[in-house]
Amino acid sequence: MSDYMISRIMPSDRRGLAQVDALLSQEGIRRDANLDYICGMYDENYHVIATGSCFGNTLRCFAVSSDHQGEGLLNEIISYLIQVQYERGNIRLFLYTKIATARFFKDLGFYEVARVEDRLVFMENRKNGFSDYVAKLAKSRREGRCGALVMNANPFTLGHQYLVEKAAAECDFLHVFVVSEDASLVPFDIRKKLVEEGVKHLSNVICHDSGPYMISNATFPSYFLKDETTVIESHAKLDATIFVRIAQTMNISARYVGEEPTSQVTGIYNQILSRMLPESGIACRIIPRKESGGKAISASTVRQYIQKGDFDALRELVPATTFEMITSKEFEPVIMHIRKERDVVHY
After folding, report:
1. What is the pTM for the complete model shown?
2. Nearby residues of 283 by Cβ (< 8 Å), 6 or more positions away
3. What is d(CA 229, CA 339) in angstroms, rounded to the nearest whole number?
4. Angle at which helices 332-340 and 299-308 pack, to 10 degrees?
5. How far apart are CA 144 and CA 149, in angstroms?
6. Cα–Cα dist 254/188, whole Å
7. Which residues does residue 256 pair with via DSSP β-bridges, in sequence order?
8. In Å, how far are 265, 268, 304, 312 from 262, measured between CA atoms?
9. In whole angstroms, what is the distance from residue 225 CA to residue 233 CA?
10. Torsion sign (Cα): 308, 310, 315, 320
11. Distance from the CA of 39 to the CA of which of 13, 29, 55, 187 falls in 20 to 30 A?
């Protein structure tokens, strides 16, 4: 152990953050937009010589000053952050790293889940974490034509319902994975309930939690990827790699995605899934969006109506089950949260 001090760097500490940014820049990376804890290791002159961060149950944004390479400081930073996570109650931890540094994290007790060649490695601190997750899903395996959908449903709209109905009509069984990462304005437990209630009329639909392996666009790490297009492509490739392993276990032969002609992000994402999934014998079916008043139904628009309190307009875009939930006492804290947000569109 070194004699250097490690402490948390608060969002108001401009000097500390500037030094963190300078360290990260030396490594060719930038501070991630999604961080909820940043730490710094300080030398005797109170200069930051090493840093690391957390977001949720992930570890991110590591760097060590070039003047202190080889001193084992990164090990100390990671040990410190693991302790922070344990104190938060996060025992199961994940990280994303460059290909070149994956071996280092393996030596620290992290195991590879999946990789995108030349881009990144996704790792966790449980040796059998992913295999146990897939084994649990295998209990829901069905024979016949099986398809899958992955959705955030923030919240569940008539557009989501239409997508499920179209996919279910083409399958003997449809597996719907609800993104369980709690990074949305509508909490996971409510989103899951909305999906389950909204598809009850479809007897061949099976709902699942996505678990920690299917992550949202909002929290996919971008700090060591060079530009926005690379981030989108890397996320889609990682998604496809993980999904193929799930699909092969569950006899899933098709994945359904919604078309979003005005979204460049979704366009790139769908293109990559359309290219990669068939390489593993899985069809990728892009379903045109359901429209209302000549416009595609969007969860972003629904959140805007919730923020404005325009329930008449809202009623036209969501199933009766969703409307009933939104106008219930259970949903009141969510409405208060949405009304306080400045931007509910890109959430």
Report:
1. 0.90
2. 253, 254, 255, 277
3. 31
4. 90
5. 17
6. 25
7. 149, 285
8. 9, 11, 18, 26
9. 10
10. positive
11. 187
Assess contact for 31 and 63: CB atoms under 8 A: no
Q: Whole-number mean pLDDT of the chain?
A: 92
In the structure, what pLDDT confidence band is assigned to residue 218 with cuts at 50, 70 and 90? Answer: low
Residue 32 CA neighbour count, 13 Å, CB half: 29
Tokens 């996060």 appear where? 90
Amino acid symbol at 6: I
What span, in angstroms and rounded, lies between the C-alpha atoms of 239 and 181? 14
Per-residue pLDDT reduced to its tens digit, 196-206? 999 999 999 99
Please, are residues 191 and 315 in contact by the beta-carbon 8 Å criterion? no
Residue of 276, 345, 260 lying closest to 304 (CA atoms): 345
Type of residue numbered 49:
I
Full 3-state SS string of the chain: CCCCEEEECCCCCHHHHHHHHHHHHHCCCCCCCCCCEEEEEECCCCCEEEEEEEECCEEEEEEECHHHCCCCHHHHHHHHHHHHHHHHCCCCCEEEECHHHHHHHHHCCCEEEEEECCCEEEEECCCCHHHHHHHHHHCCCCCCCEEEEEECCCCCCHHHHHHHHHHHHCCCEEEEEECCCCCCCCCHHHHHHHHHHHCCCCCCEEEEECHHHCCCHHHCCCCCCCCHHHHHHHHHHHHHHHHHHHHHHHCCCEEEEECCCCCHHHHHHHHHHHHHHHHCCCEEEEECCCEECCEECCHHHHHHHHHHCCHHHHHCCCCHHHHHHHCCHHHHHHHHHHHHCCCCCCC
d(CA 98, CA 84): 23
Confidence of residue 346 (pLDDT cuts 50, 70, 90): low
For the four alpha carbons of 279, 280, 281 and 285, in that order, the dihedral sign comes to: negative
Q: pLDDT by residue (tens digit) across 244-262?
A: 999 999 999 999 999 877 6
